[in-house]
Amino acid sequence: MGTLFVSLVLLCFGSGIRAQALRPAAPEEVGMSSDRLHRLDRALTSYVESGRLPGGVILVARDGRVVHRRAFGWRDLEERDAMEGDDLFRIASQTKALVSVAAMLLMEEGSLLLNDPVGKFIPSFRTTLVAEAREGGGYDVVPAHRPITVRDLLTHTSGVAYGGGVGADRWEAEGIQGWYFAHRDEPVLATVERMAALPFPSHPGEKWVYGYSTDILGAVVEVASGVSLDRFLETRIFAPLGMADTRFFVPPTLRDRLVTVYSATPSGGLERAPDGAGMAAQGQYVDGPRRSFSGGAGLVSTAGDYARFLQMLLDGGALDGVRLLSPKTVELMTVDHVGSLYGSRGAGFGLGFSVVEDPGARGQPGSLGEFGWGGAYHSTYWVDPAEGLVVVYLTQVIPAGGLDDHERVRALVYQAIVETR
Questions:
Q1: Residue 199 in contact with residue 131, Cβ under 8 Å?
Q2: Residues 15-30: what's their mean pLDDT?
Q3: Rounded to an integer, what distance in angstroms lies between the CA atom of residue 40 and that of residue 14?
Q4: How far apart, in Å, are the Cα atoms of 381 and each of 86, 284, 293, 362, 393?
Q5: 110-129 residue pLDDT tens
Q6: How far is Cα 381 from Cα 392, in angstroms, rounded to an integer?
Q7: pLDDT per residue over 242-257, tens digit each?
Q8: Is residue 53 scored above 60 in pLDDT?
């Protein structure tokens, strides 16, 4: 699909009519306060000045209009290279939402069903194994109680972890551990097929286990669609939504826009992550093999691109006259599917995101029905349909122990709302 021509059509939004999505607007036009949003800028600047954050980009949109978009700090501390609003970030697990939408596109076409067994697409998954701990030490490998389904992958109830837990020694011996894939010189489907022979830490449907589920889902998308995951995402999501800067690997010509990764130190400062491959390194997003498309954690994007994707979901599956999903599909994605299995107070889990079930129990500003997630490099996002709100916050810190900026960003975004919906 070529470059998208965006016409100036009018779209219904809530109870009103609006023009092309995500154009800038004064906060006061959509019930927010410019003065109160400045508190957000001051807070983020203080994190940089105190050496706790290198820099980042924050984007806040309400009612389809961007009311706050700021780059702060540095994309490279040592070079004193200032952060810019269109810089490229490794979004890690924020990839999961995009691949979940890819699966739902295929569901809407009839190419897969949520209750389809994964083995229908990847034969090695027709029967899988589970490692059960023995009392006194060791473990037994037993057949899974039932086949893993597509819905299990979307909800992280497949029982598949990131190569840890019971049976981790076999995953280590196979060289499959952790979420980082950019160094792999094999297609993701080949890696996923090898996973099927390894013991998983839980039976399907019995626990919420965070791990390779969405990487496996990406391989299912490849098989069900007949094209590689990068090509499917480009032609079916990125190009239609105008997400020109979202991809698995960065072209060498754009190297300077890729933000540097840092690690939080025990003393509260930052140190530059090492060059090379690995989860807590700069990674091989420019110079790597460029063969493994990790559906669980592989994409690079910008705040503006990711906001367009989220606005599409907030608008019921369409953006600027281009419809990707039915509103009923988005509705299905953004309700809880796992009940008590998720185990997070006040929240459940839908098809690709966490979902707020009880704002009071969660104990943070927000709304019933809000959905979102984040990434390993300390990025986060959320969508609040009740308030017409999209927030994207990107930085690159791993590990990020001791940082409280996510909670502060949330508080300062909501305090800037002066007219509720």
A1: yes
A2: 78
A3: 27
A4: 17, 24, 22, 17, 6
A5: 999 999 999 999 999 999 99
A6: 5
A7: 999 999 999 999 999 9
A8: yes
41 with 69: CB under 8 angstroms?
no
Q: What is the pLDDT of residue 19?
A: 53
pLDDT of residue 20: 83
Whether pTM > 0.70 for this model: the answer is: yes
* Residue 176 amino acid letter: I
Q: Within a 10 A sphere around the Cβ of 223, how many other Cβ atoms?
A: 17
